Amino acid sequence: MAKKQENKAENKDEKGSSYSAKDIYVLEGLEPVRKRPGMYIGTTGVDGLHHLIWEVVDNSIDEAMGGYAKNIRVELLPGNRVSVSDDGRGIPVEVHKQTKKSALETVMTTLHAGGKFGGDSYKVSGGLHGVGVSVVCALSSWMKAEVCRDGELWAQEYKQGKPQFKVKKIGKCNRTGTKVTFEADPEIFKTIEFDKKRILEHLRQQALLTKGVKIEVIDLRKAPVSYYGFYFDGGLLSFIKYLGEGEKPLQEQPFYVHKEYEGTEVEASFVYNDELETEEKSFANNIHTPDGGTHLTGFRSALTRSLNDYARKESYLKESEESLTGDDVREGLVVVVSVKIREPQFEGQTKARLGNTEARTAVESVVGEALKEYLERYSLDARKIIGKCLLAAKARQAAKAARDTVLRKGVLEGLTLPGKLADCSSRNPEDSELFIVEGDSAGGSAKQGRDRRTQAILPLRGKILNVEKSRIDKMLINKEIKALVVALGTAIAESFDITKLRYHKIVLMTDADVDGAHICTLLLTLFYRHFPKIIEDGNLYIAQPPLYKMQKGKESVYVYSDAEKDKTIKEMSKKEGDKINIQRYKGLGEMNPEQLWETTMNPENRTLKKVIVDEAVKADKLFDVLMGEEVEPRRNFIQAHALSVKNLDI
Length: 650
Hints:
Strand 15, helix 12 (440-449) and strand 16 (455-460) form a beta-alpha-beta unit. The strands form four sheets. Strands 1, 2, 3, 4, 5, 6, 7, 8 and 9 form a nine-stranded mixed sheet that branches. A five-stranded mixed sheet has the order 10-11-14-12-13, with helices on both faces. It has three domains: 31-230, Histidine kinase-like ATPase, C-terminal domain (Heat Shock Protein 90), CATH 3.30.565; 236-395, Ribosomal Protein S5, domain 2 (2-Layer Sandwich), CATH 3.30.230; 416-545 and 611-644, Rossmann fold (3-Layer(aba) Sandwich). The chain starts with 30 loop residues before the first helix and ends in a 9-residue tail after the last helix. Mean pLDDT is 84; it is low at 1-11, 17-27 and 410-415. The protein is 36% helix and 20% strand. The chain is α+β, with helices and mostly antiparallel strands.
């Protein structure tokens, strides 16, 4: 029997593709970073580009946290270069025993190399994985490292992660420290232009977290040169003051504690404002953990337990009454929690969440003990805090009753949808669109002009309630809001379920005038405060109806801005014939169904603006200013921005 002949040189599959030892690629040095940059910096967009600066600055911050550096300087240079320098100890330059290369070259060109994996070089650090500066080196078209140590100045340059020469002595210096200058690789990044505003925000935050350290930012890209300096002695107390700018604090004395517990350094500060929203910021080794983690969980547990214990001890809560919940005690709370821990366990290189169980124990113990003392010492502030929490608890119970009523009427009694809703025939949320339309007149035109299969219309009568000033129980009494909640199908508050959203496109369609803009703002406030997931998932849009209809003879054109109108006038004026008639649309109701469909609702012609939130904290403050109870911040905002207004309806 003949044996099958084996092709030892190359094994091919049915499609003729080879898969043998030669097809197994071993990426050496920093090649993996250039091959898959997203694995190391999350994205090659704007966020990833700025992550390069954060990684280099983190090394300087680590020196500062260890007590070795007091000054950090970031320079934005012409040609999209960035320089980061500090007065720390300076990266070692002597030959590394394992790599047989300079320690500086090893750190800059080797993944998982650094002084943060063992020994006593760093008790705490943000650069846990040791890939930070080497990743920056890999993703830079050019980079230079300069080190001052023992009176000597050393340097080495790199291109796309590869050294251009051995580490060499280039001069003398009378200080210590490290300077890294780099230029992001345009082959990797979608843009290599750095945003000063983003950089200032991040570095201000780092200065607030690292008290006693001066961080300078100098923009040398164009004249005049701009200089910014950050220095805070108050630590998280300064941070809380910064976050609460423009707010009215409930208590006179903010809570603050800074203490070590079994090797974990815990720092926490909070204040209550007379608001409904909560703002929680958490950090581990100066790295922002936007998804929280064990340290934030520990704080929440300590806060809830301590306030309940105090409320019962002082008879604010009777034995028969239910305890305050986590939501009750966090209403109006602004808090920053920061831990410094020897071996932080982050989820992924982007470090969005802390996982160390010992961090929870440390924070819970330190905050619990300090808060008990705080409540006893500042009894007037304690009374105000407990009063706010009890009010939140009553509102929660009233809201639950109101919410249950909405759900019961909306689902259990068979009145699935409000009568004013003209629903679409499709039951597939991905195909379905809900147009929230201002007024019955426009609603009538939209109902007649729509595609009945995929487009639903919900007309709103007048201006809805400003939810920024109202608790949820008052909110659900409002007929317009109640109709919208039922139409969306997701329920609200803790009952909210995004998977039950009945329409994957929700379009706000209001008149192009002051009242229309106000109604749109009220609706945006409603979605931002109570349906944020709908915005996060990209389901909310704003329709762009035309501002003008321009006609000359038989030719008619719809235009959507004043600039477009001026351009169209010039084009039409070149043609002979009748004069140009311009119709200004003040309201959607002025358009007949065919016009509304053609200009604003037809997927082939329309323009929709997707609602996104880039910076949640700033958006939160802006909603407070523009829609909140306080008049003074709103007046100041209007005065400050009056000259920059582009579209004002008179």
